[in-house]
């Protein structure tokens, strides 16, 4: 709803942003203020079990409510934040907020087995990241295995991230790791052999054309097989309709995420969603 209402203002913001491209400092400054003033919000999108439709996880997604431009989507501000150290504070804020939210749901008797939080490459250069993450989890009382961190393939282009041992440290604490937007990056698949990857998120560009597009079908089938042989879980992203859902379930993909099962929602609405009864169940195609 907010998105629809804000569509015009987004565009205004987008063109404004292009004009301001020479002036990243302004955006960065506003974003810094936004973080400090609490103008950022975390939305939650469900991930469901492909065979039962049960919610098995939520992905935390940052939103910026700008006083002049309305809702600004993450694609417009995460890249700006990533160019500065701002992403570090923002990323930690999202993590802290989302972990506290899951702990609060749990106190209300609403069990969410897993929380996914996106991590930017710059965060993976923080030597104390594993301690920070460990501290946030300890404070919440949640067991570390509740948390999954999502990293895109391009992070593995950086030698230090591949070999620095930070991913092993995080994994050693019980946090799981997922590769986000799988298939769209530039890294070689070698990282799957050496790094503690628990899950692969098949990018939505390969889900879009299902079940009719032969290339999408071949790619989705191959990724499902890769997951089975490597014993890595697979999530399909961007599932928008029942045909896609059914097709992915038939391919043996265990978890599905997309508008068909639920859009990203603010915590209050997601609470209702967690409480509500029957889910959409994927039907065979
Ligand atoms: P992502 O991590 O791949 O997140 C999934 C994106 O796909 C979300 O976009 C979500 O709204 C969108 N999506 C989900 N289901 C569907 C669907 O069925 N169809 C379509 N067309 N889209 C769908 P969103 O929230 O706009 O976020 C965009 C990207 O911004 C994220 O992609 C992630 O890379 C980044 N991002 C968002 N929040 C954070 C954050 O807290 N930290 C970092 N580092 N990055 C973030
Ligand atoms: Mg993600
Ligand atoms: Mg993704
Ligand atoms: Mg994405």
UniProtKB/TrEMBL annotation:
Ranges of residues in domain EAL: 24-278
Domain of life assignment: Bacteria
Name under which the protein is recorded: PAS domain S-box-containing protein/diguanylate cyclase (GGDEF) domain-containing protein
Lineage of producing organism: Bacteria, Pseudomonadati, Pseudomonadota, Gammaproteobacteria, Thiohalospirales
Covered residues, full protein: 543 to 827 of 827
């Amino acid at each position: 709803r907010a998105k629809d209402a804000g569509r015009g203002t987004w565009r205004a913001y987008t063109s404004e942003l292009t004009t301001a491209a020479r002036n990243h400092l302004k955006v960065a400054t506003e974003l810094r203020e936004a973080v400090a003033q609490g103008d950022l919000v975390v939305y939650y999108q469900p991930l469901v079990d492909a065979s039962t439709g049960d919610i098995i996880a939520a992905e935390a997604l940052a939103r910026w409510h700008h006083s002049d431009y309305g809702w600004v989507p993450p694609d417009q501000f995460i890249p700006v934040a990533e160019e500065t150290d701002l992403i570090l504070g923002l990323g930690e804020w999202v993590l802290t907020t989302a972990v506290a939210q899951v702990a609060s749901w749990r106190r209300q008797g609403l069990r969410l087995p897993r929380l996914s939080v996106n991590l930017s490459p710059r965060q993976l250069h923080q030597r104390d990241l594993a301690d920070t993450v460990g501290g946030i989890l300890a404070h919440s009382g949640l067991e570390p295995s509740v948390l999954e961190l999502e990293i895109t393939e391009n992070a593995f282009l950086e030698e230090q991230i591949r070999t620095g041992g930070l991913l092993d440290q995080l994994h050693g604490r019980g946090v799981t790791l997922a590769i986000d937007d799988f298939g769209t990056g530039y890294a070689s698949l070698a990282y799957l052999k050496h790094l503690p990857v628990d899950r692969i998120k098949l990018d939505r560009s390969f889900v879009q054309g299902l079940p009719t597009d032969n290339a999408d079908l071949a790619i989705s089938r191959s990724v499902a097989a890769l997951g089975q042989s490597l014993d890595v879980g697979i999530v399909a992203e961007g599932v928008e309709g029942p045909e896609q859902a059914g097709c992915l379930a038939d391919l043996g993909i265990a978890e599905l995420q997309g508008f068909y099962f639920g859009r990203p929602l603010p915590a209050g609405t997601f609470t209702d969603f967690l409480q509500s009864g029957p889910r959409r169940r994927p039907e065979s195609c």
